[in-house]
Structures are given as C-alpha cells and as structure tokens.
Amino acid sequence: MSDRPISDNPSSEAAKAVVRRNTEEVQGGGDFAVFDELFADDFVDHTPQPGRTPDKEGARALYIGLREAFPDFRAEIHWQAADGELVTTYKTYRGTHKGAIFGVEPTGREIHFETVDVMQVRDGKIREHWGVANLFSVLQQIGAWPPAPRE
What we know:
By secondary structure, the protein is α+β, with helices and mostly antiparallel strands. It has a single domain (6-141), classed as Roll (Nuclear Transport Factor 2, Chain: A), CATH 3.10.450.50. Helices cover 30% and strands 33% of the residues. The protein has 4 helices and 5 strands, in the order H-H-E-H-E-E-E-E-H. It has helices spanning 10-27, 32-38, 56-69, 135-141; strands at residues 39-45, 74-83, 86-96, 110-122, 125-133. Strand 4 (110-122) and strand 5 form a beta hairpin. Helix 1 (10-27) runs antiparallel to helix 2. It starts with 9 loop residues before the first helix and ends in a 10-residue tail after the last helix.
C-alpha cells in the first residue's frame, strides 16, 4: 500500500477534474457541448430524480430543467474525495427562481440546496452516478411546501 493519500493518486486527481468540469462548466455554465464530451453514452444514474430516465438523456434533461428554472444556477464545491474512479463531492447549489420548476411558477426567490454525489469516471468519461440532493428544501424555499409548524 502506498504512503500517499488516496486523493493524491494521479488517476483520482484526473477523475476529480472531470467532475469539477461538469459542476462548473455544464451545471454552472450551461455548456452542453462539454456535457457531451464528459458523459459516456452508456451513462447510468442509479438515483435519478423523479420523472427522469436513469441515462445520459435523463441527466441532460435534469440539468436543462435546473438551468431554465434557475438561470444563474451555480455550485460551490466544499470538498471532493476520490478513490480511483469514484469521486465523492459535497457542494451547495444556488440560484434565483426565474423559471417554473416542480409545477411552481417563478417567485424570484434565491434558493440553495446541498448535494452529496458519487460519480464513476473512467477514461475521462462520467459513467455512473449516485447522489442525494436536498430538493425538499427547494420546495420550501419557493413556497411550494410549507415548513412544519413549530411547537
């Protein structure tokens, strides 16, 4: 076993760079040419959002929908850890609600939500995804779901 930390592995660093490009250039910048470059044609999302297919087109539709609802959609990556092909990222997304989402018309409200996801990167392509996003808090922030009453 090497004395180097897992995240110093050159292949892990390259995998982290691919995931960062997706977060910054695709999700945050809306560059879908980069999406096509980064996502494998046989991509599988093991935790797709409701109403989305668990494939590359489902991921594209999710990203487009988020950018339409929040044109200034962006993420702050708090940390990333990698173990070979698997990259775990903890981040906070932010944006302004300027387009319909979850059946809710634009409110102009600022939103934020946290996400932890794992992406498998092989040969420079994102091949698989597992993730948990606090989208329930978005519903609360845009007024689609009232917060629980305080006692």
